[in-house]
Amino acid sequence: MFGSIDPALLIAALMVNSVPVMLAATGELVVEKSGVLNLGVEGMMIMGAICGFVTAVVTGNPYLGFVGGALGAAALAAVFGVLTQVLQTNQVATGLALTLFGLGLSSLIGQSYVGIRPPATGDLPLGPLADIPFLGVAVFGHDWMIYGSILIVAAVWWVLKYSRMGLILRAVGESHEAAHALGYKVTRIRMLAVLFGGAMAGLGGAYISLVRVPQWTDGITAGAGWIALAIVVFASWKPWRVLAGAYLFGGISVLQLNLQAAGSAIPVEYLSMAPYLITILVLVIMSSGRGKAALAAPACLGQNFHASR
Amino acid sequence: MLRLERRPSPSVFWERASPFLAVALTMVAGGIMFWILGKNPFEAIRTIFWDPLFNAQFASYSRPQLLVKAAPLILIAIGLSLGFRAGIWNIGAEGQYIMGAIFGAAAGLAVYPVESRLIFPVMIVVGALGGFLWAMIPALLKTVFRTNEILVSLLLVYVAQNILAMMALGELRNPEGGGFPGSRNLSQIPAMANPELIAGTGMHWGVVAAFMAVIAGYILLQRHILGFQIKLAGQAPRAARFAGVSPARLVVLCLGISGVLAGLAGVFEVTGPAGQISIDFNVGYGFTAIIVAFLGRLNPVGILFAGLLMALTYIGGELAQFMLGLPSAAIQAFQGMLLFFLLGTDLLTNFRIRLAKRKVA
To answer: What are phi and psi of B355, to 5 degrees?
Structure first.
């Protein structure tokens, strides 16, 4: 059953497949660390996918495409930020609205872009590294976004753990009242976190439409945003574990795609539902074990803050 | 400088009025969107909200459609609203709807071609059971393992869609369909059909069930202890626990009820308007019902009207697609916009907007 699958190519595909959820989950992790629960990741990702795609096709430059994707998704995130932070709306409901609206708007924008191929995002030349047997194909023959996404995870980890900015962000997420009393602008900090989360989801979405598929179809993200949300829980709000979660998910989806292509005896539908089922399973394992996942969550997650004093 | 000031108690006026304001604002913003798309905004809004009901040419076709489209939305939204009030977020109604349809259709097709009056009622019950069982997965995972029900219920939608594809291509495929995907047409089998009860109204058993659900929901929330507990758990979770309300029991009940109703919506749809299990059977009622629940302010009577309004945007959207070439995705974005404005105008219920000079800290 596994005979026809080349392990080096499998690892290469795994790395490509895990980038979108890794980026989106890292962004959402920062948002949740600031105490905001944005369930609109799926909507922001698909907005990033279409905005990135359109920008890349119009300008002919894939790098500008990623910028466009990040900006488009951040614009949608700004709507979420204004609604939840200024207008005090329920974060769960607003996140859902973001997803529903994003799915509609993206398909509206994307109508005339179906079936077009975007400009190719070139591989990052790593010189002699790419000639190493096995590792050259598996790890060192990719486009720059793959390495960029790992650097982003590292940067987020460093900022959250060692910088003053990270400390303030975590303080706002753990106790907005205390942070407010210390003079930090809770609303402004959360707004910035939401925008960052949007931009990251947009990058992830753009990666799907520009590199992984690469094409535009309606609903192209196919639940990746929801899986990103699950990975944040899986990661217990720790950036390095997001990396692990994204690779786990990427591995499962690559494996199921390869099994489909190899004509496995398991029906296609069972294989395509596997990533979702395993995500649920992982969520269950993480949330049971003496409630550790719940304890790691930022204390003010999902609570609105209004400075009335 | 505008400043928000929390009201001592929510404004009764704005609680009623804000949905209307939101609809008006959505029309304005939607009009701008249609204008950007190069359509006449006034014509587009009129085609969506006016023509399906009053246009001499189309109204006779589209008026019955109103009830057909509103019934599943109302059924699902009533169930969702109970959970939303208690802070239990079932956003996977789409999956429960699919499973209801599959279970119901499978029960009927299992005994094909037997003709009996009992088959249709049995299918309805089995369909409701299908939705219930699918909703029990997030409910039990939540109560036993404390797993987040939002993510589990949503992820299960993707699983349900794959099961639907599997059924349409495999177990439930019409053996006389020449190999095409899709089941037998249930609406053409007398023992399984969910026909139009009064000709020209669109009234079918699902509509009857939707009205019953509205009444039951109203009684539950206004008169029954469970309704009180749901409201209490949502507004003051700690007080609810002191009052002896078991959170686990509420999770199971709220998810169970919404699963049953979504399953019912699915089985009524598959035996009536949709007619068969096919790959594209689900059209997003489970997600639109979330908007309906909020538009109706989580109130059964409000949901009744909200469901009719949302059904109108579906029908009007189709009409606008046909008449003006307005893309169908525009209507989806329009519905999403409505939810934004609804949530945004909610502010007026809980806050006062005051003009105030910036004070020196």
So the answer is: -85, 125
Query: A35-39, A95-99, B200-204: which range is least confident on average?
Result: B200-204
DSSP conformational letter for B4? E
Torsion over CA of B304, B306, B308 and B310, rounded to 10 degrees?
A: -150
A102, A223, A306 member nearest B155 (Cβ): A223
Spell out the residues 6+ positions from residue A306 whose beta carbon is closer than 8 angstroms to its own. Answer: A88, B4, B6
Rounded Cα distance between B10 and B51, Å, is: 37
What residues in B contact A80, CB-CB < 8 Å?
A: none
pLDDT 10s digits, B219-244:
998 888 888 898 888 888 888 888 88
* Residue of A63, A40, A31, A109 whose CA lies nearest to A207: A63
Number of domains in chain B: 1
**Domain of B218, in residue numbers:** 38-326
A222 touches chain B (CB under 8 A): yes
For residue B357, pLDDT over 70 is answered with no
Angle at A140 between CA A138 and CA A142, to 5 degrees: 90
Q: Residue B165: which CATH number? A: 1.10.3470
Residues B40 and B56: their CA atoms lie apart, in Å, by 21
Q: Within a domain: residue B162?
A: yes
According to the model, what pLDDT value does residue B157 have? 92
ipTM exceeding the 0.90 mark: no
By three-state DSSP, how is residue B210 classified? Answer: helix
- Residue indicated by tokens 């609406």: B187
Structural domain contains residue B344: no
**CB distance B331 to B97 below 8 Å:** no
Mark which residues 268-297 of A lie under 8 Å from B by CB: 269-270, 272-273, 276-277, 279-280, 283-284, 287-288, 291, 294
Q: What tokens appear for A168 in the block? A: 């303030």
User: What is the predicted pLDDT for the residue at A78?
Assistant: 94
Mean pLDDT of A32-40: 91
- Domain assignment present for residue B242? The answer is yes
Contact A99, A42 (CB under 8 A): yes
Instruction: Work out whether the CA dihedral A266, A271, A277, A282 comes out positive or negative.
Output: positive
Interface test with A, best of B80, B340, B354 (most A CBs within 10 A): B340
| Maximum C-alpha span of chain B | 82
B155 interface with A at CB cutoff 8 Å: yes
Q: How many CA atoms lie within 13 A of B101 on its CB side?
A: 40
Is residue B166 within 8 A of residue B284, CB to CB? The reply is no
SS3 B352: strand
Residue A117 has pLDDT above 90, yes or no: no
SS3 B2: strand
Q: Which structural domains are found in chain A, ordered by start?
A: 7-114+137-296 (1.10.3470)
Q: Residue A108 is nearest to which of B163, B327, B346, comparing CB atoms?
A: B327
Contact across the interface for A280 and B287, Cβ inside 8 Å: no
Query: Per the CB < 8 Å rule, is B340 touching A83?
Result: yes
Q: How far is CA B195 from CA A29, B64, B200, B283, B360, in A?
A: 50, 13, 12, 20, 69
Largest Cα–Cα separation, chain A: 67
Let me know if residue B24 belongs to a domain: no
